[in-house]
Design brief:
The complex is a heterodimer of chains A (about 575) and B (about 180).
Chain A (H helix, E strand, L loop, with lengths): L13 E4 H11 L4 E4 L6 H7 L5 E3 L4 H15 L3 E5 L3 H4 L2 H9 L4 E7 L15 H5 L5 E4 L6 H13 L5 E7 H5 L1 E4 L18 H13 L3 E5 L1 H5 L3 H11 L3 E3 L14 E4 L6 H9 L2 E5 L5 H4 L10 E6 L13 E4 L2 H11 L6 H13 L13 H11 L5 E4 L3 H9 L8 E2 L10 H11 L5 E6 H7 L3 H6 L5 E6 L4 H10 L14 H7 L3 E5 L5 H10 L4 E6 L22 H6 L2
Parallel strand pairs in A: 2-3, 2-4, 4-5, 5-7, 6-7, 9-10, 9-12, 10-11, 12-13, 13-14, 15-16, 15-17, 17-18, 18-20, 19-20
Antiparallel strand pairs in A: 1-8
Helix pairs in contact in A: 1-2, 1-7, 3-5, 3-18, 9-14, 11-14, 12-15, 16-17, 16-23
Chain B lengths: L2 H8 L6 E10 L4 H12 L3 E8 L5 E10 L1 H13 L3 E6 L5 E12 L5 H10 L3 E5 L3 E8 L1 H11 L4 E6 L3 E4 L7
Antiparallel strand pairs in B: 1-3, 1-4, 2-3, 5-7, 5-8, 5-9, 6-7
The chains are: A alpha/beta (about 575), B alpha+beta (about 180).
Chain lengths: ~575, ~180
């Protein structure tokens, strides 16, 4: 046989196991921190991670680990990585993945799977992980051939972190982890169906600029997309140059400094009266990286009835999903805001700002400061004061989350870490842990509800193990407060299943090795906050707060934004 | 309310109609589950869905018939395009297309009625593909309206069972577009 001319072998191509390929690819992608939990089928991967220069954090439950990876991503802007075993491990990620999906958080989840020849046989710890997680991930896939493993991992990080980010899951059968193939570490991604439009259409941008220049009563309505796009600076420049007030969604908090006069704070169901009135009276609404969620718009048919709508978003499917948009601009917020700023002109809009100032004067966020009990709002204000509004703040879900959004004044992006879309109770504590890993030098506070805390408090052990100085403020009223509020207002004060007997949280904290403080007197709040902030260990402060406090104002579900309840109550507290 | 708002509210009260949506997808496992799952999760109704190979072994074509108003169909199109392995999405609603269904029908036909049914089959340019003492199986293809018409004329004999492929479609080449 004639000898074939030898082609030179590609440089540095070595035979590696699937587990080694994953670790090497993660390192090449710059991953230095991972969260995850061991289990049978992922042992080959954990064995390789044992020697890898990657900080690996083991939570007490996979859900906690998933929220940690999510919050790590929110606080750092990097892609969070979570690893879990097959079956129950993968199933326990579902809530965390759905949370990240709804809030567009870049995350890669790696799950173990039973051997490919056992798949479909109801093997031990087998679950149809890709089937279960498909609706709660941006994309997922199962790798059945070690030769496509490196490419799949690279694709996962690319998909997770670009466009509208989201969680991507890769399911890894154990025989793929131990299988071998030559790998040069240079696999290229191949995603013909994945195209992202980053630059906005120039004509659409000009139309938006023209609308802004013509507008008498414009409002910028900005969401988490501005933070994801790292476009807070561009937003500030636009708002100042065009002289337009800015209101933020829950996830948008931090994208515009709330100490500035143009800030209208949060809008929506528990937003400020001045933001809601401004939106309803506006003649132009400029939505940036926001998705017209029902908690923001109230009744759609009467939402911003006089306004033309400009919508800037990287996800074309967000546009005209809930509200018809007059001027859509698809693309990256950072690019579009920069281009838009070039074309806008300053307008004084004195009458508009005067009206807003009147609303602000008349309807600020308030609570009854003279009441004898500890008010949760007062605790948040005190923490805000002592941290100079500079802490990273995580929350659970419910009343305390809304009060945090109302009373902590955020200054910069990635400062507020909260489950907005899915509304996942139990998010706060693991989120604070994930954020502290991302920002070791920052003060990280978890404002938590008692029952949100109850759901994932086992992660306090994780914080203790890693000596994280996180601070947990529990607003302990015994109730699932937001549910109780709805039962009070809409179910004739029949508090069905919304009250539970709580443990002594300070003792729980101490038993787990953290610092525990109980505060039941109003006059002790300030001192306790100071002590909490000075602690170097995880610190849990159990604030025994007013039990029947409500969040005001409130736009009842299905009502227009301007139909807020509780305004007279707030006025009476002046 | 001013006119702008009315315009916005009425914008979507467009007529509900049938749209043929064609999606080129990567030929990978799980793609059909992605697409079907998206339709179910978002509450879109599928009239028919056909998947088949194309000239490119790496790609399959899904032809999906959806009934809805403009807003719903626009969302269907966008949500489909958002699925990572979906490469290209087209709505054929305003385009001249050739749309075809293939149908197999088993009709109750006693031997004495075979000639008259055969005549009907010829009129619809179908074929008799199976025969038994009491039945005929007929293959008919064409636009959906033709299928319906054939079923109507067969009804008096008694339709035993029907299997249909659902619509596949392709734009006419003379239409000035791709």
């Amino acid at each position: 046989m004639p000898a074939k001319p030898e082609t030179p072998a590609p440089a540095a191509e070595t035979v590696k196991t699937g587990a080694q390929i994953i670790v090497d690819t993660l390192l090449d992608l710059g991953v230095d921190t991972m969260f995850g939990y061991v289990g049978g089928v992922v042992l080959p991967l954990f064995d390789k991670l044992f020697d890898a220069p990657i900080r690996f954090i083991v939570p007490r439950h996979e859900q906690g680990g998933c929220h940690m990876a999510d919050a790590y991503a929110r606080a750092s802007g990097k892609t969070g990585v979570i690893l879990a075993t097959s079956g129950p491990g993968a199933c326990n990620l579902v809530t965390g993945l759905a949370t990240a999906m709804m809030d567009s958080i870049p995350m890669v989840a790696l799950t173990g799977q039973v051997r490919t020849d056992l798949i479909g046989n109801d093997a031990f710890q087998e679950a149809d992980t890709t089937g279960i997680t498909r609706p709660v991930t941006k994309y997922n896939s199962i790798v059945k051939d070690v030769r496509v493993l490196e490419r799949t991992v690279r694709e996962a990080f690319h998909i997770a972190s670009t466009g509208r980010p989201g969680p991507v899951l890769i399911d890894l059968p154990v025989d793929v982890l131990v299988g071998k193939c030559p790998c040069n570490g240079k696999a290229e991604i191949d995603l013909p169906g994945y195209k992202i439009r980053t630059k906005g259409h120039a004509r659409q941008i000009s139309m938006a600029a023209e609308a802004i220049n013509k507008s008498e009563r414009p409002v910028l309505y900005v969401g988490g997309g501005v933070i994801i796009a790292n476009a807070a600076e561009e937003l500030r420049t636009l708002a100042e140059k065009a002289h337009v007030p800015v209101t933020m969604t829950l996830l948008g908090l931090g994208s515009y400094d709330q100490r500035k006069p143009e800030s209208l704070d949060m809008l929506g169901m528990h937003g400020s009266a001045y933001a809601n009135y401004a939106v309803q009276e506006s003649d132009l609404l400029i939505a940036v990286g926001a998705r017209f969620d029902d908690r923001v718009t109230g009744k759609l048919a009467t939402f911003a009835p006089h306004a033309k709508i400009v919508h800037i978003d990287i996800d074309p499917s967000s546009i005209s999903k809930n509200v018809h948009v007059d001027i859509p601009v698809v693309g990256d917020a950072k690019h579009i805001l920069t281009e838009l700023t070039k074309e806008v002109e300053y307008r004084p809009r004195e009458a508009w700002f005067k009206k807003i100032a009147e609303w602000k004067q008349k309807f600020p966020f308030r609570y009854d400061a003279k009441a004898p009990m500890i008010k949760p709002q007062a605790v948040i204000e005190e923490v805000c004061r002592q941290t100079r509004g500079d802490a990273i703040v995580a929350t659970g879900v419910g009343q305390h989350q809304m009060w945090t959004a109302q009373f902590y004044k955020f200054q910069r992006p990635r400062q507020f870490i909260s489950s907005g879309g899915l509304g996942t109770m139990g998010f706060g504590l693991p989120a604070a842990i994930g954020a502290q890993f991302a920002k070791p030098d920052a003060t990280v506070i978890d404002f938590d509800g008692d029952h949100s805390f109850n759901m994932t408090m086992t992660e306090l052990a994780t914080a203790v193990e890693h000596e994280l100085p996180i601070k947990v403020c529990i607003f302990n009223n015994g109730y699932m407060g937001m549910v109780r509020q709805w039962q009070e207002l809409f179910y004739g004060q029949r508090y069905s299943c919304s009250y539970l007997k709580n443990p002594n949280y300070a003792e729980v904290a101490r038993a787990l090795g953290a610092v525990g403080i109980t505060v039941d007197r109003k006059e002790d709040v300030s001192k306790a906050v100071a002590q909490m902030l000075a602690e170097k260990r995880p610190c849990v402060v159990d604030f025994r707060v007013e039990q029947l406090e409500n969040v005001w104002p409130m736009v009842p579900a299905g009502k227009s934004l301007s139909e807020m309840d509780g305004l007279t109550i707030l006025e009476s507290m002046a | 309310m001013d006119t702008l708002h009315e315009a916005r509210c009425t914008r979507y009260e467009d007529k509900t109609m049938k749209h043929i949506i064609s999606a080129l997808v990567e030929n990978k496992p799980g793609v059909l589950a992605h697409v079907a799952g998206m339709f179910a999760a978002r509450g879109f109704n599928i009239d028919s869905l056909v998947v088949g190979r194309t000239e490119d072994p790496k790609l399959s074509r899904m032809t999906i018939v959806v009934i809805g108003d403009d807003r719903i169909v626009e969302q269907v199109r966008k949500q489909l395009a958002r699925i990572v392995p979906v490469v290209k999405v087209q709505d054929f609603v305003d385009k001249p297309v050739v749309a075809r269904d293939l149908m197999l029908v088993t009709i109750a036909v006693p031997p004495e009625k075979r000639p008259e049914v055969s005549t009907l089959v010829e009129m619809f340019r179908g074929h008799v593909v199976d025969i038994s003492p009491k039945t005929l199986m007929v293959e008919v293809s064409g636009p959906e309206t033709k299928m319906e018409a054939f079923l109507d004329v067969c009804k008096p004999y008694g339709i035993k069972s029907v299997a249909r492929t659902g619509t596949i479609a392709m734009p006419r080449q003379g239409s000035g577009e791709e």
